[in-house]
Here is the input.
Amino acid sequence: MSIEETVSTVDPAFSPDGAIVTVLAGKAKGTSARIPGDLGAELVVGKAEDCGLVVPDDTVSRRHLAFKRVEGGIEVRDLGSTNGLKIGGARVQVALVSPGTIVRAGDIELLVRVELAGVQVPVSESSRFGRALGTSLAMRRIFGLLERVARSSATVLLTGETGTGKDVLAHALHEQGPRARGPFEVVDCGAVSPNLIESELFGHERGAFTGAVAARAGAFERAHNGTLFLDELGELPLDLQPKLLRALESREVRRVGGSKTIAVDVRVIAATTRDLPRAVRKGEFREDLWFRLAVVPIHVPPLRERLDDLSLLIGRMLENEPDLLVSEGTIAALRAHDWPGNVRELRNVIERAAVMARASGDPEIRLYEALSDAASPDLDPEDVFRFRAGTTWREAKARVDALLERRYLSWLLERHGNNASAAAREAELDRKYLAELARKHGLLRR
Here is the structure.
């Protein structure tokens, strides 16, 4: 195909500061460079040593292409290269791109994505984004970013502790975007049996395996023209990760036991409680899949780091209980708690206290007893495994995980005289991660 002066159909709506280009293959695989933020500024890519992003592969010219800030977003332009510039298989001269776009230079693929470290994200003027609430600076920064991300189809990776509301943000992102009228499909990668997860994602044909009595569409097909939310992505088996990568690259899936490919148009939002960069370093998660998913990575802070949101969150949780009052003393008690279960734990505590208030005829919410039960570091394991009607799988798993973390870290730190570095070496954990877990459970001071 001859080179033509053309503009890509890739959505240019989202082009914030923090945009970077990452090399996905070749000698410079994993190398990234930031696209300068000033209007008209350029990032030149090529083999020459004076390029902003040096890619020393044979199919790349000395000065192959350039990314440039323009009024409409980020422009990519061929600089007269030998092997050309391609987007989506079409050879182009000039195109507008946004995070998530794959640009091909010769045999090398470049991914436009976002790296927010050190970037000042504009703060939203609103204290809500969809059903997500927050008056704290941390949450309004996230809302400000999501307001811009929602207009594009960029893949978003939400990270953070269990119970922080990543699923609520994912649903709000879908509702605020151009795919709001399409389906919103959820796959919890940690709750589906490993031998069934492939079928859940990609579907299966009749007779593909024992029990497959009829053909079934997978989550990718069901989410066509909508959004697919992959929750607990870090639990996805390693042998299935290449298949997910291919689906993200080609936007096609093949059912288990099937022979034909099915085109799908979905926006992917993923969430995980795991430290995926660390999992990549340990060989537990594919680096190329990490890059494809972390186009716009957003860390959701734990509740203990945004205590200013407590009053707003409690008000939402008690909106159907207008006669119940929450005193300043109760709020003070809530602020003193460490909230290892985050917003999910807060909801459980508030609901339990509301039931107690209604039963006693007391118009005031009194949390001290309910809160002390939830916060007790000496919680009886029998109570953890005593399930109540209405308890979800996530809530039960969060209580078990919290007990395991607290008991194991307490034993480990005592064994090493409260030396976090020595404890981390024995547990084969990153020292900063272990220290943060220990602080979460009140085992270390900051």
Q: What stands out?
A: Residues 408 and 427 are 10 Å apart (CA to CA). The two ends are 61 Å apart (CA to CA). Confidence is low (pLDDT under 50) at residues 1-16, 372-378. Residues 393-415 form the longest helix (23 residues).
